[in-house]
From TrEMBL:
UniProt protein name: Uncharacterized protein
Organism this protein belongs to: Microbacterium ginsengisoli
Amino acid sequence: MNGTSTDARAVRARADALGLPDDEFRDDRDAAIVWSTLVEPGDRVAGAAIAQWGARGALDRARRGDAEGGRLVGDAVWSAALRRWGPRWDAATLRDIVELAARAGAGLLTPSDAGWPRSLGDLGAHAPVALWVRGDASALAAEPSDWHVAELNLAL
């Protein structure tokens, strides 16, 4: 960990603050924690909303069932996404996930962090909103030119 916002202590400190999904979230990092519990990896609708309004703005619109989401991705697609995410708006589950991450020593990386893997941007709307990490997260941000690969040649 780099000792900044990805640090497990920061995750633990946010666990109590997040409490209920109806709370006003302080920033995109809080909203990213919630999004990580609401959506499946690669959720295009969430990705499009987050790209348009940021994690916090998109979460506020989703929570309200705001019609702007329908204008962004189409009414039927937005409505289906809200129905899919609805059962996951559970404060107890959210607190449990954040507490388990903190106990495991996990930290959180978001696209605004220096250690965020830039290559994830290639996924567009399918990119993750956050990554839960343990240990040294700097390897995630390494460029392919920094990778060291061993070539093994087996003669059969």
